[in-house]
Amino acid sequence: MITNKTSFKFLILFITLFLQSQIFSQTSIDRQIQIGLDKIYNFNWEAGFEAFNSVITKNPDDPRGYHYKSIIYLWYYLGNLREDNLDSFYLYSDKAIELTEKKMQEKPTAELSYLLGSIYYNKSIAEARNGNFLQALWTSSQMKANLEDAIKVKPDFYDAFLGLGLYNFALSQIPSSLEWAANLVGIIADKEKGLKLVIKSVQKGKLSKVDAQYYLSQLYSRVIVDHPEAKKILSGLVRRYPKNLLFGFSLAWVEYELCDLNNAEKRLRKVLNTKDELFPFISSNSNLLLANIFFDKSQFDSARVYYQNFLKNAVNNDFKGFANFKIGLSLELSDKRKDAVKYYKLSDTGNSDIEEDLYAERKGNELLDSALTESAKRLILISSLYKQNRLNAAKDSLIIFLSSAEIKDELKAEAKLLLAQVFYQQKKYRESLNAAVDCLNIEIKKEFWIHAFAHYVAAWDSYQLKNYTDSKLFLLQIKGISEYDFRSSLENKIYTLDRLLPQDLRNN
User: Fold this and answer.
1) Of 32, 182, 197, 232, which residue is least crowded by CB atoms under 10 Å?
2) Nearest of 352, 284, 361 to residue 315 by alpha carbon
3) Cα-based torsion angle of the residue sequence 212, 38, 85, 322 in order, rounded to the nearest 10 degrees
4) Measuring CA to CA, which residue among 57, 151, 66 is closest to residue 111?
5) 398 and 358 share a domain?
6) CA of residue 325 relative to chain centroid, distance
7) Do 429 and 471 meet the contact criterion of CB atoms below 8 Å apart?
8) How many CB atoms lie within 10 A of CB 150?
9) CA–CA gap between residue 70 and residue 91 (Å, rounded)
10) Do 99 and 63 touch, CB atoms closer than 8 A?
11) Whether 33 contacts 24, CB under 8 Å
């Protein structure tokens, strides 16, 4: 039911916005380009346009001015999906390709190959976001070929490693429905190789430092699942470019994942107070994340306000089902069952490629027929304690909850999983393992994700206890669960742990 399509789509959306460079000798043109880049990194679009227009006016045969100007329009398109911005992006990127190829006919260089690769990379992103995945695969192959040409001439051209790394990482998660097309254009991708190339670009690259840092932060936060490392990188970027809404939102998301709800809330309010109309995606997703924060704080009235704000300003149907479902939950938790039903009926309005929307549709349909039990309500409130990082309160509440003879098996299993997660965060790995195993010994009839995630927690417990073979065995057990919610998310988490295991236990 759930494929790796979701994670692929994520990478398409977030591995997009930079891949820039100062590629020729240090001249006034380069300095002007750097000024423009610093301006757009800090969301000063007018100054960015001014800088790149100046390059075009003074040097009409130089492809860089057109390339960098096209990037602004790509930002705009990714932020608001307006066709006029997409058309402008293609106009200037095509001009940049024309001029670059002309220069390469005169005298091919590593720098020109790198520039051409960068242009094709941006085009592949635009095409993928526009739903033209086959064309995106072709332009990705063009990007790869040109960046490889640059490295052949200059093996230490570490900035070119970034694009190749992202290529390997993103396309290693290509949906199975597109594998035939990838094979047709000769695409072979390696996720681990991709990560190493991106890290190398961060460590030794010079021209695309900001780009590489941001991309690495996204890989750490979304795929590798190393939120502390992602936070460290993003904190530096936010300090340098405080007006960059994307950097600010990304850091808030990481803080949320680290259960630092108060700082995430402050940062999101700052993003929303900017009232930037150019990027409704950022503002709408900020509303959604802020709603999740209030929900996790059990402030349900405030949560509903921000879920409604998200729905009102959503650019497409991504997470619409999830938002409606959460509004329904917040109403039912406030003893407004009749009102909640209205929103459960809308839980199928989301995007079927997104795990949260799929889950919302399934659970929303269930709650149409049967109301939340009092026990289920209690467990949601207890889970909020965990998300607030109130671990002792969560643990004590769970122990009391589990002592009740009225708790049905499936809900008991979910509570045991939550208890295992609490113990793990407290670094009580033996207690966490025992709770996870207890969870696995409870029969599950519908919520199969509970057992999948319990195996995962047990695998981490075993790893921390240095029982590496047991850790691997718990991971392998997950493969025996045919269908469960949030499969793609868990597969990324499994990858994170698997790569830490001794070499002889890792997946090939």
Assistant:
1) 232
2) 284
3) 50
4) 151
5) no
6) 21
7) no
8) 26
9) 8
10) yes
11) no
CA-nearest of 24, 33, 13, 116 to 74 is 13
Give dist(CA 28, CA 17) in Å, integer. Answer: 24
pLDDT of residue 22 exceeding 60, the answer is: no
> Does some domain include residue 234?
no
- Judgement on whether residues 414 and 335 belong to the same structural domain of the protein: no
Of residues 294 and 167, more confidently modeled: 294
Structure tokens at 15: 């591995």
Q: Residue 41 corresponds to which tokens in the numbers above?
A: 């990194």
- Count of alpha carbons within 13 Å of 392, Cβ hemisphere only? 0
Same domain, 429 and 298: no
Please give the residue range of the domain that contains residue 59. 5-225
b/e burial code for range 344-358 (CB count within 10 A of at least 16 → b): bebbbbbbebbbbbb
* Last residue of one domain, picked from the residues 331, 354, 369: 369
Dist CA 415 CA 402 (whole Å): 7
Q: What is the pLDDT of residue 1?
A: 32
SS3 125: helix
H or E element at residue 154: none
Residues 6+ apart with CB under 8 A from 403: none
For residue 179, give the CATH number of its domain: 1.25.40
Is the same domain home to 126 and 214? yes
| 349-382 confidence digits (pLDDT tens) | 999 889 999 999 999 999 998 999 999 999 999 9
Q: Give the Å distances, CA to CA, from 291 to 114, 264, 300, 302, 322.
A: 42, 11, 9, 7, 11
The residues, ordered by sequence, that sit 6+ positions from 239 with a Cβ below 8 Å of its Cβ are: none
Q: Burial, 481: exposed, middle or buried (Cβ in 10 Å; 0-12, 13-18, 19+)?
A: middle
Q: How far is CA 225 from the centre of its chain?
A: 10
Give the helix/strand (H/E) hosting 489: helix 487-498
Secondary structure (3-state) at 220: helix
**Residue 19 confidence (pLDDT) above 70:** no
Residues 6+ apart with CB under 8 A from 471: 459, 460, 462, 463, 497, 501, 505
For residue 289, give the CATH number of its domain: 1.25.40.10
Task: Give the chain's largest Cα–Cα span.
Answer: 81
